[in-house]
């Protein structure tokens, strides 16, 4: 008999023992449950740090230069002032009806981004990063959404999700960015997806097109309102090349192999990015988390090999760890005998 308990959107499964009509949890599984909970918490923390690192305006400016036509060829530092306010990071719900908040100010109805109900709406799916960018004409704006994925999902097609997100970015503008039937006031939207651990570095621009099936009538309206950019980042940091300039920057930021000093050096020397205290802290936090995740993964391999009868020499050879390091992991995992 097995039981289930919800945790962070997933269900932990564990054996149930019946004694005297009372169901008890098999405590031999206690460590497994704790490890699962710790792994989930670590993943959540990694995701949060990744979003905050991406949310630095200078990093966003580098992304904009490579993805938004109006900023192509510009110095990213010159793009930073066009980013309005501070980006909303994991604050705006995606769900229809919850993206906007309505309140009364000075006797009038005001509609804005929903940033006030974080506790009430806890557990809802939220946009990773969302912000407004003022165009160079000083008047028009675009809405940018940046999403970070550790890898390409297997339970659904990621492009379908991107289409849903970009559609929400348009539909949620009603009564916030345009009112009633003033559809000409709809702002252009970009949903930019960064997928790590891909087999190759790639980037696709997905947008509306007009295929003339009959006649040549030109329908009034804008085909450039909906824009999706899919960025695939390979597992290895690419060599410096203008074609892979953005990919090398993003790969450097999220690399689990480079040290903090190596990352900072690449950011400063190759991209001329000023490394302030906030950016340095965000990079350092990511490095520490990456190191912890890597060490946990190696420890899990060591324990699994040990439990499956592999010799000490085989484990050392497979993991690249010393005999002392392997023995320390095994001793830490094994129960203390009386």
Walkthrough of the structure:
- The structure is a single chain.
- This protein has nine helices and eleven strands.
- It is an alpha+beta fold.
- The protein folds into two domains: 55-210 and 220-275, no CATH class; 283-338, Arc Repressor Mutant, subunit A (Orthogonal Bundle), CATH 1.10.10.
- The strands form three sheets. The chain has a six-stranded mixed sheet with strand order 4-7-8-9-11-10, with helices on both faces.
- It is elongated and about 75 Å long.
- The two termini are 31 Å apart.
Mean pLDDT: 82
Structural class: alpha+beta
Low-confidence stretches: 2-19, 23-29
- Please summarize the sheet with the most strands: 6 strands, mixed
**Total number of beta strands:** 11
Helix content: 25-40%
Beta strand %: 15-25%
Strand order of the largest sheet: 4-7-8-9-11-10
In angstroms, what separates the terminal alpha carbons? 31 Å
Number of helices: 9
